[in-house]
Amino acid sequence: MTKAHSSRPLRKDASINRERLLDAARELFAEKGLGVTLNDIAHHAGVGVGTAYRRFANKEEVIDTLFEERLQAVEAVAREALDEPDPWTALAGYLRRTLKMQFGDRGLHQILDDPTLGDARINDVRVRIAPLIVELVRRAKDAGVVREDFEPTDVTFIQSAMAPIIDSTRDVAPAVYERYLTFFLDGIRSDDRRFTPLPAPALNSETTHSAMTRRRRNT
């Protein structure tokens, strides 16, 4: 990941231009992928190319900034979920809120799914977010509100499975992804039903990490 520009507070106009550039980058990454240039981002934002290069050294720094902002937001959601006293509300709420964030940010999906970028970013998720998910699932299992064979890594694959649904229905039926999330949530919740034995065990953390990076390389 590239080193960010100086962290000194920006003037108001500089801060506005920075946000315009980031908004433009999100839109262009979503529409055209990561092949766009910092010049393209500047033109789309309606600012001069020189202004763009004063705010960001290169496109990779824009990507790093967008990713870090989203990672901080997801981490905050997970920590807020851990403050929720009801374990089921905490786990389900984490999934609902993070998928809503995913729904609202097309550009982030491009960053995460690009085969040439992001192994370090995926590792950041593993280090900073995964332990919080582990704790959310542990609390839910201890409370008996999720099935005993549900594991923290299953959360990762639920989120991954939802991504193409969100992408393909965003413009035609914006709320329909919540229908399929409800199916997932009903499938993991524990009650008096008898569950069909699962045909395969959950993957461990290392194998999950390998699967996510391999999927991106093969796209």
From TrEMBL:
Residues 196-219 are annotated as: Disordered. Residues 37-56 bind DNA. Keywords: DNA-binding, Transcription, Transcription regulation. Coiled coil: none annotated. It comes from the Bacteria. The keyword DNA-binding applies. One of its GO terms (molecular function) is transcription cis-regulatory region binding. Residues 15-74 form the HTH tetR-type domain. The keyword NADP does not apply. It holds the Pfam family TetR_N. This is TetR/AcrR family transcriptional regulator. It comes from Gordonia aquimaris.
